[in-house]
Amino acid sequence: MDRRKFLRTSGALCGLGLVGSTVMVEGCKKSSNSSSPQGPTVNFTLNLSQSTNAALNTAGGAVASNGVIVANDAGTYVAVAQACTHNGCSVGFSASSHSFVCPCHGASFDNSGNVTTGPATVALKKYTVTKSGNILTIAG
Q1: CATH T-level fold of 43-139
Q2: Percentage of the chain surpassing pLDDT 90?
Q3: Does residue 30 surpass a pLDDT of 60?
């Protein structure tokens, strides 16, 4: 193979590699075009008498289950999708601010899942929580 042909072939292969890697990176980006709340569709129960759910018996306590975080906010049970809509990190509940907070980049959400502090721009999905005796039912 002569030098010119080698350089042309090498340049073409490099260009194809660059285009291919760009397509792969673009395909891995999270879609943030949606402005509707995001989270899984669920219907499950938590038994408050079980030790794994004991945190929910105290104001400020929270439990994560099935992709949802359930919190006891001063005696009212609230539940939102656990994954932050900015980058997918698991949010936690802050009793002092009565909000859900992402530890990765500082996004925060109110008890309805609405963004109160960025970088997240899309709300967390809020779930219906009903209590019957010692059983919480989370659905949505």
Answers
A1: Rieske Iron-sulfur Protein (2.102.10)
A2: 71
A3: no
